[in-house]
Amino acid sequence: MKAETSLHSKRGRSIVGTVDSKARERGWFFGRFMDEPLLHSELVEVAWQKVPNRTPSADQRHLHRHTVEVNVVLSGSIRLKIDEVEHNLRKGDFFVVWPESVVSEITTDAETEILVVRAPSVADDKLTLGVGET
């Protein structure tokens, strides 16, 4: 592990920021992809995502090979399938997607925002699937 990304080098340090500015840019503000050393971690990724008015599309069907993802609906609603089981979620609901579970047919309303926590922070973990692929 690199010195600048180790937990030991960050002990006794902290950072404060505004997520809203990051939410406009894909939402991810903590993880291995961040340049700011105190927001860089190989352990976990965190995003606050504004995802208004999504409708199902072929490029939504995906899985993560090595990560678990916890999603909390902060506002609005979301309908999606996880392993072909449909779920309808509203503010305060959550869903957990384990590695190799297929997420598809995502629909959101105009107000949908979600908090996403994914661990570990792994490069190129998302695999987009074609229709019928599992």
Task: Give a written overview of the molecule.
It is built from one helix and ten strands. The chain has one helix at 19-23, and strands spanning 28-30, 45-50, 62-64, 68-75, 77-82, 85-90, 94-97, 103-108, 113-119, 126-128. The strands form three sheets. The protein has a five-stranded antiparallel β-sheet.
Key descriptive features of the protein:
Jelly Rolls, 3-stranded antiparallel sheet, 10 strands, 134 residues, 5-stranded antiparallel sheet, mainly beta
Record the SSE blueprint.
Layout: H1 19-23, E1 28-30, E2 45-50, E3 62-64, E4 68-75, E5 77-82, E6 85-90, E7 94-97, E8 103-108, E9 113-119, E10 126-128
Antiparallel strand pairs: 1-2, 2-9, 3-10, 4-7, 4-9, 5-6, 5-8
Second CATH tier, the architecture? Sandwich
Number of domains: 1
Sketch the major β-sheet. 5 strands, antiparallel
Q: Work out the number of β strands.
A: 10
Condensed summary:
Helices cover 4% and strands 39% of the residues.
